[in-house]
């Protein structure tokens, strides 16, 4: 296991959709261990593989004392009920912007043994699921911001 550096906005790996994991080998096992170690710190809710430079579909979470991971997640359900709140990202450090997400979310994937994993929740966990799957699809949360807020975010990024 290793604590890995976070890739920052501007790194092309963050804008590239991640490839599905087709074989669980030592590289994938090490990736999962690194994702879990790197997300297991105060103030970190989720971490996608591409945020540590690996273009494979996997993410870890650390929400309200629940630490876990999923391989090849697919969002299968989002509630019609929405939540508004400030959202941030380890790859866009120090910036938080109001982002609308579904109040509840459910994703399905697998674990290292090929068993089905269901990741679901509401509030922060739902936000985490949506945020991390967006990462795996090559999208940063700032792309989901309303037009005026997105302009504000882009200005703030230039000022960093």
* Percentage of residues in helical conformation: 25-40%
Question: Could you state the CATH homologous superfamily?
Answer: Peptide deformylase
Beta-sheet strand percentage? 25-35%
Q: Note poorly predicted spans.
A: none
* Number of helical regions: 3
Secondary-structure-derived class: alpha+beta
What are the secondary-structure elements, in order, as H or E?
HEEEEEEEHH
CATH architecture type: Alpha-Beta Complex
Trace the largest sheet across and list its strands: 1-2-3-6-7
Largest sheet: 5 strands, antiparallel
CATH class group: Alpha Beta
**End-to-end distance, in Å?**
31 Å
Radius of gyration: 15 Å
Work out the number of β strands. 7
Q: In the residues, how many domains can be counted?
A: 1
Structural shape: globular
CATH topology: Peptide Deformylase
Q: pLDDT average, as an integer?
A: 96
Catalytic activity: N-terminal N-formyl-L-methionyl-[peptide] + H2O = N-terminal L-methionyl-[peptide] + formate
Pfam family, one: Pep_deformylase
EC number: 3.5.1.88
Function: Removes the formyl group from the N-terminal Met of newly synthesized proteins. Requires at least a dipeptide for an efficient rate of reaction. N-terminal L-methionine is a prerequisite for activity but the enzyme has broad specificity at other positions.
